[in-house]
UniProtKB/TrEMBL annotation:
One example of a Gene Ontology biological process annotation: quaternary ammonium group transport
Molecular function GO labels: ATP binding; ATP hydrolysis activity; transmembrane transporter activity
Pfam families in the record: ABC_tran, TOBE_2
InterPro entries: AAA+_ATPase, ABC_SmlMolc_Importer, ABC_transporter-like_ATP-bd, ABC_transporter-like_CS, Mo/tungstate-bd_C_term_dom, P-loop_NTPase, Transp-assoc_OB_typ2
Lineage: Bacteria, Pseudomonadati, Pseudomonadota, Gammaproteobacteria, Cellvibrionales
Superkingdom, taxonomy of origin: Bacteria
Protein name: Iron(III) transport system ATP-binding protein
GO cellular component, one term: ATP-binding cassette (ABC) transporter complex
Domain ABC transporter stretches: 5-237
Keyword Lyase belongs to the record: no
Source species of the chain: Marinimicrobium koreense
SUPFAM superfamilies for this protein: MOP-like, P-loop containing nucleoside triphosphate hydrolases
PANTHER family on file: SPERMIDINE/PUTRESCINE IMPORT ATP-BINDING PROTEIN POTA, SPERMIDINE_PUTRESCINE IMPORT ATP-BINDING PROTEIN POTA
Length: 364
């Protein structure tokens, strides 16, 4: 599949101040992507630049080979064939659902508009509500109508800015999956902005993680979790903690939990100080293990309980135990590490000898 949208080193901001720097990404036709990141990192700013509400001060934005914007020129929003769904639905309160849906259709006959309307109402499964006014619809129904309205002019690209954030958690999840199915059915290419990871994971083929206006990684949900490219992504996506250690050889990290061997080769020298990312599913409950840790916090989550465990040196790790193992704060539990995808980042300090990090306590 070819790239539909290309952002090439764009920079943009407000009042001469750059908010987004050197951002490049390429979106394949038919893909749904999410921009994910903490509040204020620039997600909406990127969306506004693509929609045409903000002109980039550097770089180029192209859609299907056509230049949408650069520092020198900018195509008007209505000429871009880019649809937009907003957080607050933005339906016209004085128009009923059918009139909302056809509002943006200027060149079609009444008959053609009626056909498009029927088709879209069927797509979002609200066939019987065409006569209702926005205030007579639930939040989820309003957002489905807002989606249908954005699809009516057949945009090449759909942008959605936190489309589910006004809805309660249960409805958000359900609607995220439903909207994904609708977009896939129509082969719509879309970008959604969210700061909710589970929503991004449920919706997206590809996720861009932003921090302070910089794209940290543009990847599949699987790779973001298992192969985070930066410390920020490792911290921001999923759960887990860093445990200090140093490189024993090119495959093995020595930590206070013993020597942990991963499935890859590191290019750093022996004794390089590193931090190893341990996800809760890398730390396995094992009563027969001689590695012990103290339970210092626990969060029950149905099928599993997330324990925060303190090691003899005071370092803390997390582990998800099946929830029928019920331990109390202060209990000591056996653990072992099972980490195939060993995620390691170099720690910026002097190389160390073998007696650091309380390793004496865990070496046999
Ligand atoms: N119209 C504006 N004028 C000046 N600064 C702005 C304007 N809009 C946004 N900003 C600033 O630009 C930065 C990025 O804002 P943006 O809305 O893109 O963040 P975001 O990642 O979408 O955040 P959130 O998740 O909170 O919506 C913030 O520091 C914000 O204060």
């Amino acid at each position: 599949m070819s790239a539909l949208l290309e952002l090439d080193n764009i920079g943009c901001g407000y009042d001469g101040e750059r908010v987004v720097e050197d951002l490049s990404l390429s979106l394949t036709e038919g893909d749904i992507c999410c921009l994910l990141g903490p509040s204020g990192c620039g997600k909406t700013t990127v969306l506004r630049a693509i929609a045409g509400f903000l002109q980039p001060s550097a770089g180029r934005i192209e859609l299907a080979g056509q230049l949408l914007a650069s520092a020198e020129q900018s195509l008007a929003p209505e000429q871009r064939r880019v649809g937009m769904v907003f957080q607050d639905y933005a339906l016209f309160p004085h128009l009923n659902v059918r009139d909302n849906l056809t509002f943006g259709l200027k060149n079609q006959s009444a008959r053609e508009k009626a056909r498009i309307c029927d088709e879209l109402l069927q797509l979002v499964k609200l066939e019987d509500l065409g006569h209702r006014y926005p205030h007579e619809l639930s939040g989820g129904q309003q957002q489905r109508i807002a989606l249908a309205r954005a699809l009516a002019p057949e945009p090449k690209l759909l942008l959605m800015d936190e489309p589910f954030s006004s809805l309660d958690v249960e409805l958000r999840r359900a609607l995220a999956l439903e909207v994904r199915a609708i977009l896939k059915e129509r082969g719509i290419t879309a970008i959604m902005v969210t700061h909710d990871q589970s929503e991004a994971f449920a919706m997206a083929d590809r996720i861009g993680v932003l921090n302070a206006g910089q794209l940290q990684q543009w990847d599949t949900p699987f790779n973001l979790y298992h192969e985070p490219a930066t410390r920020f992504v490792a911290n921001f996506v999923g759960q887990g903690v860093f445990l200090a250690g140093y490189l024993l050889d090119r495959h093995t990290v020595r930590t206070e939990l013993g020597d942990i061997e991963g499935n890859r080769c590191y290019e750093w020298l022996e004794n390089t100080p590193v931090d190893i990312l341990l996800r809760p599913d890398d730390v396995i409950h094992d009563d027969s293990s001689d590695k012990r840790a103290e339970v210092v916090a626990k969060v029950f989550a149905g099928t599993a309980t997330l324990y925060t465990l303190q090691l003899p040196t005071g370092s803390r790790i997390q582990s998800a135990f099946p929830s029928h193992h019920d331990y109390a704060i202060g209990d000591h539990v056996g653990i072992r590490i099972e980490a195939d995808h060993l995620i390691v980042f170099r720690r910026e300090e002097q190389a160390v000898g073998g007696s650091h990090y309380g390793l004496e306590t865990t070496e046999s």
